[in-house]
Design a protein that fits this description.
By secondary structure, this protein is an all-alpha fold. It has one domain. Helix content is 63%, strand content 0%. The protein is built from 3 helices and no strands. Helix 1 packs antiparallel against helix 2 and helix 2 crosses helix 3. This is NfeD-like C-terminal domain-containing protein. Keywords: Membrane, Transmembrane, Transmembrane helix.
Length: 91
Amino acid sequence: MALWQEWWVWFTAGVVLAIIEVALPGFIFLGFACGAVVVGIGLWAGMLGGSLSALLLAFALASLACWAALRAIFARRHGKVKIWEKDINDN
């Protein structure tokens, strides 16, 4: 079995990408981390398998879906302005 067909490789890639997201915040790598974990779960459950191209396609689709879901949940809403009631320097 090739290395990319192992479920733990995808989980490890997900953890590494999540750590990169913490180190370089920008809301970019979290979708990729989630996609890698989804592919790892698919391999572990036996739902996915096959060639590298099939796994990369599943990874791309899962990453895109996770990124869209995370953006819909956590993104800042347009048109809403943060109003500060108290200044940090006020006593």
